[in-house]
Amino acid sequence: MWITLGLIVGGLIVLVLGAEILVRGASRLAAALGISPLVVGLTVVAFGTSSPELAVSLQSALSGQPDLAVGNVVGSNILNVLLILGLSALITPLIVAQQLVRLDVPIMIGASVLVWLLALNNVISQLEGALLFTLLLAYLGFLIWQSRREQDPAVVAEYEQEFAGDKPRTLRQALLNLALVVAGLAMLILGSRLFVQGASDLARLFGLSELVIGLTIVALGTSLPEVAASIMAAIKRERDIAVGNVVGSNIFNLLAVLALTALFARGGVPVPSSALALDIPFMTAVAIACLPIFITRNLIARWEGAIFFGYYLAYTAYLLLAANEYPGAVQYRNFMLIFVVPLTVLTLAVSLWREWGRRRLA
């Protein structure tokens, strides 16, 4: 038991540190090569915060534990919205940029629906992985093109301050940053191996499926960079960064992490029937629910954050009840589907209708 916990905690620490080191080195190298800070933030940093998910999912698939890989991606996307945005909005109401509503959230919804459709035959094949990754390249290309047209001095200054404050000016500094990139990648590989081994041992120890472990412990562990970044952004009142970080991470998880895992795993990534029955539809529903919440006053209010957080607790509770074959698990699920979910949909519909009326009068 103690060895298993040691593997999980040690792997998490190495993963988070590796991601941080990788982002720092890659950002400074990109700045030295003349890549704009805005592009660095949209690409290198966004991919860097998703690198723990990529490392763990690849390691899981290659070591014959595909359920962990699928559970990691799906669980991380659910956790990012419900837990991270929920907690962040409870700290302070979050501002939602117009671009997120018009572009990024619809892309997140589209990617979620596409993954659901591709998984209906219980596998994400290598060809389908290539398709998802091609869509990611198209999305990144558009972001880069759009960022080069960015004229808002405040946005440019923010990225300059955050990502290009320490441009390497000498060969020695450049080599040091290259070494940081290599060290970060090595730590991600090592951390993912330790973490996957510990998570697999934990699943066997408690009789839980690898899918449930992936949806809960692994998803929480690999999302720690997003958790830290978004909550700290909320505390610092950088309320737009908290939302953008989550949406961008979810898109990368689907179009990069899942895509590359399917591409490199022999025969693609098998998708368990239980994930198709509950977890992937729930992930898609969570993505769709973001749109009406984000549109209303371009703000995530505290009460909406409370709804997100409450749903995450309810979803996690059901996973654990069902995994332990608790007799009341079915009744609990039916109560959520018959009463709680329709009531939430009705509340959001009324809120959306009021927002539409407010905009008409304005």
Runs in which pLDDT lies below 50 for 5 or more consecutive residues are none
**Proportion of β residues?**
under 5%
CATH fold type: A middle domain of Talin 1
Class computed from helices, strands and strand pairing: mainly alpha
Average pLDDT works out at 82
Which CATH class is shown? Mainly Alpha
Supply the number of helical segments: 14
For the biggest sheet, the summary is: 2 strands, antiparallel
Order of strands across the main sheet: 1-4
Summarize the structure in words.
With 362 residues, the protein is mostly helical. The chain has one domain (2-361): Up-down Bundle (A middle domain of Talin 1), CATH 1.20.1420.30. The chain has 14 helices and 4 strands. Helix 2 (37-49) packs antiparallel against helix 6, helix 3 (51-62) packs across helix 8 (171-206) and helix 4 (66-91) packs across helix 9. The N and C termini lie far apart (61 Å). The mean pLDDT is 82.
In short:
The chain is mostly helical and 362 residues long. It contains 14 helices and four strands.
